Amino acid sequence: MKNIGVDYLPLAFIRSENCTGSGKQSKT
Questions:
Q1: What is the distance between the alpha carbons of residues 3 and 23, in angstroms, rounded to a whole number?
Q2: What are 1-11's pLDDT values in tens digits?
Q3: Residue 22: what are its φ and ψ, rounded to 5°?
């Protein structure tokens, strides 16, 4: 589970930045 969290953290961060800065905060 920890592995997924670490892998998901950077993934969501990069994806959010690519999509929209606002999305990052919304996803968090």
A1: 23
A2: 555 555 666 67
A3: -65, -35
